[in-house]
Amino acid sequence: MSKLLLAVLAMFVSCAAQAQSWPVRPVKFIVPLGPGAGADLTGRMLADRLSKQWGQPVVVENRPGADAVIAINAVISAKDDHTLLYGPSGSFIGHPYTLDKVPYDRSELVPVARVSNTVVVLAAPAALKAQSLKEVMQMAKEEPGKFNYASVTQVYDIMMAAYLKGAGLDMTRVTYKDPVSAQNDLVESRIQLYSAAYVIVRGHAQGGRIRLLAVQNRTRAPGLDVPTAAEAGFPQLTLDGLVGLMAARSSGMSDAVRERIAADVKTHLSDPALNERMTATGQIVNPGTPAEFAAAIDEQSRSLAAWSKAIGGKLK
To answer: What pLDDT sits at residue 152?
Structure first.
């Protein structure tokens, strides 16, 4: 057997051994959202399962603020393969199109495991006469400049701005620091269209104060009788709210460890009991390998680049 082949085999055995022995100390999931958010809740559910399997505590730490930059920099600066970012891809893929200067190296974020898709809905005030997304857009066309819209993240703002420009519609974007203020303004008809995580507006929807017009995911949400944006006639407003685990490249986490984490995550997500609990938090369970998560992120990044180009650059 050649020395080269022996070296390759030795490296393979070493990587496999490293993957099996990881973790050797407590693991930290840093979440760029506050307590109670859908991704925060599911992160805690998954952390509980994984801590029992791995034999090490898995701690969830919330680091909201600065459009997720605080959390991202915490993960990168840790340079630790036991510190991971847990949250939506929208936390970082929109930064090149919303920030004058991205305060971290985007190549530092390495996909580890796709976990789920946040259910994102387009909602309108119940007081608005429109019964469908098509009718809302028709009303906006007939009354240019009268309607306001808001989004759960700037990624969805960019997508909506690109659609409106392409359709020749004049609607005003309203920005909010927190989702509670946005949904209150929606209920009071101060904004007419809100792209929001379903879990945020569920109470008002069930109480009849707002109307759900479409789900912006590619697939319908389990247990929710609402068409997708594509089914409603607006495929341009489709974007999955990808949620998963990311590591810092500088942490030195090996490919074998990333694959092992993704496999462990998938095993737990195949449990119907956990699946049901995550669905109740407004998530569509969608586990994936590092390569699958990376491909999905790349696809969204390409879409964002096209939308940004369509609106002439960064959001105003």
So the answer is: 80
Q: Which residue has the tokens 């609990």?
A: 277
Specify the amino acid at residue 16: A
- Please give the C-alpha separations between residue 216 and each of 90, 127, 268, in angstroms, as whole numbers: 14, 22, 26
Last residue of a domain, which of 185, 211, 239?
Answer: 239
224 and 281 share one domain? no
Task: Verify that 249 and 112 share a domain, yes or no.
Answer: yes
Question: What is the rounded distance in angstroms from the CA atom of residue 84 to the CA atom of residue 63?
Answer: 12
CA 268 centroid distance within chain: 20
pLDDT in tens, 39-69: 899 999 999 999 999 999 999 999 998 889 9
Cα–chain-centroid distance for residue 73? 18
What angle (nearest 5°) sits at the alpha carbon of residue 32, between those of residues 221 and 255?
85
What pTM value is reported for the model? 0.89
Q: Are both 149 and 289 inside the same structural domain?
A: no
134 and 148 part of one domain: yes
- Give the C-alpha separation, 12 to 315, whole Å: 47
The bridge status of strand 27-31 relative to strand 210-215 is unpaired
Can you give the residue range of the structural domain that contains 86? 23-118+240-309
Nearest to 238 by CA among 256, 204, 215: 215
CA–CA separation, 218 and 230 (whole Å): 8
Q: What is the domain count for the chain?
A: 2
DSSP letters along 93-130, please? TTHHHH-SS-SS-GGGEEEEEEEEEE-EEEEEETTSS-
- Secondary structure (3-state) at 152: coil
Average pLDDT over residues 225-252: 97
Q: Is 274 left (phi over 0), alpha (psi -120 to 50) or beta?
A: alpha
What pLDDT, on a 0 to 100 scale, did the predictor assign at position 1? Answer: 57
104 and 248 in a single domain? The answer is yes
**DSSP three-state, residue 268:** helix
The torsion angles phi and psi of 28, rounded to 5 degrees, stand at -120, 130
